[in-house]
Amino acid sequence: MRPTIAPGESVAVRPLPPARLRVGDVVAVLSADGTVHAHRLVRIDGARLWTRGDGAPAEDPPHATAAVVGLVRRGGRGGALAARSPRLAPLLGALGRIRRVGDAPGAAAALALALALALARARRAR
Prior knowledge:
Distance between the termini: 32 Å
Number of helices: 3
CATH class of the largest domain: Mainly Beta
Shape: globular
Number of strands: 6
Helix content: 25-40%
Radius of gyration: 16 Å
Structural class: alpha+beta
């Protein structure tokens, strides 16, 4: 979930009925191996939902809504916007890397690489 939530960081989880979940929410999910992880909700289809970490390139395997432990109370607006509009993800990710002025060149390089990869994928799809 970097940069929104650092690995190992403690978060507050609020129980929430599955019917109130929305794409863009950060949810705590009980995995098949018994671990709980916090990922952003990117798709809901009936009794199944898909999540993805903000820094992950692909969705997680689907979860049953019963696997949701609750809503993570600190989720970040940028990640919710990226979940709703995936094309904005490279820009939001680059901006999220800037903590001080010295970080701007690295963020610009990350954005340039993300855009180059997106263009390469688009050309390959044609």
